[in-house]
Amino acid sequence: MALDRIDVRLLDLVQRNNRLSSEELGAKVGLSASGVQRRLKRLRSEGVIEADVSIICPKSVGRNVTVLILISFESDRADVVDRFKRAICKMTEVMSGFYVTGQTDFVLLVTANNMEEYDRFTRRLAHENPDIKRFETMVVLNRVKVGFTLPIISAGDQS
Description:
The chain contains five helices and four strands. The chain is an alpha+beta fold. The relative contact order is 0.16. The protein has a four-stranded antiparallel beta sheet, with helices on one face.
């Protein structure tokens, strides 16, 4: 899908603050509120905007442990990968999952209330899964930067 300058500016604005009203957005991009709504509806329907979310502080809801897990499989067979993808999509503790290249097959961002809960999660995830050769846990000590803001090509950079 081709994005024009107004689309790019709207995307940049809504990814930083999706609570701006159509009127506020319109004032910033030079469109009417209804014009903004039409564009946002199109961007959502075409999958450019995947979701409108709020980022919640994990500790405020009792999620005191955040970890990154590196997972390597015994085999890189498609059925093993597909089965694992389906499994992690059902696990509420998994905030993000990435199928990656290199020595590791998957990287997971996982949250838990405490280390005991994390231990139960790893047993379900890895210890009971014969396809997993190795997993490594890295405990997050400090959330330095959190977000989903993408750098979007500025309108002046587009040809």
